[in-house]
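Internal tracking record. Fields below are filled automatically when a chain is submitted to the structure queue. Please do not edit lines marked as system-generated. If the sequence contains nonstandard residues, flag them in the REMARKS field before resubmitting.
Queue: standard
Priority: normal
Entity type: single polypeptide chain
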Amino acid sequence: MQTEELTTLLKIKELLQRYGIRSMTMDDIARHLSISKKTLYEIVDNKEDLIKQVLVMDLEERGRFVEEVHQTSEDAIDALLRISDRVYADLKKLNPAFMYDLEKYYRQLFAMMKEMEWASISTWTERNLRSGIEAGLYRPDLNVDAVSRIYLTIIEGIVLNHERFDLDHYPLAELYLEVIRYHVRGIASPKGIELLSSYINQRKTLIR
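SYSTEM-GENERATED OUTPUT FOLLOWS
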């Protein structure tokens, strides 16, 4: 993907996440980008193709970020906190209408996104758990596969059952924050809890 095309898709992602999918027509998108609809259709075939490209691009970009974090973090807990910070920040910018619209009007794309996210997050979560166990930061008796599935199921459950929550009172970002607190304190060893406390004191981490 060319840099110019990637930049355009990033801008489109921001528009869709800010205003929702249904409320943004192709005319609206072209106008916000200060380009013609003809130019927009040189990048995408139609609105569904546009959404698909945005979703795939977003998942690939997050995958690169996660890999970079894994390579540069001090340890498994540091990696978990850095990724949690990023997800929290992303969710704060996400209009709940985006998920509503995607699930209701673009079911195939919604299913594709779920499958791709599950595979990606599952792989990284298991990698993080094994790394933390080896370093003595997570409990040695953890069932890695089971804990990974439980963690992912909780996150997926919030997304798929958002109607059970008052999102004005419990925004997605805040719900995610509670899940991370629940997760990290449940898997950490005494050594890991001590290190977690150290990280909290060193920086303004979200996990308190």
